[in-house]
What does this fold into?
Amino acid sequence: MRATALRLAHQGAFRSSSRACAPSVQPKFQPHFSRFTAENITKWVPTFAVWGGGAAVAATLFLSSVPRYQVDILHKLPFIASYFTGKSTSPRISFG
It folds into this structure.
């Protein structure tokens, strides 16, 4: 049996399938900056917050004895200011 145009049309050979024209999975543009996308950034924000908080606490601990750091930063914090005000850094020794 020879394949005529009428038979092929009846069998669906000339029909365009929806899968051939438009695939169901198409690439989508993701806005990014360099290699960082919004999804990656939101995944890493809690980690960066914990490490940043730890770095701030460590910097405060190490710099708490520096007078300039005490005046500029520690005297302005509500609960910590009373600990650092009114103390002299040099002991008062009387010699006689």
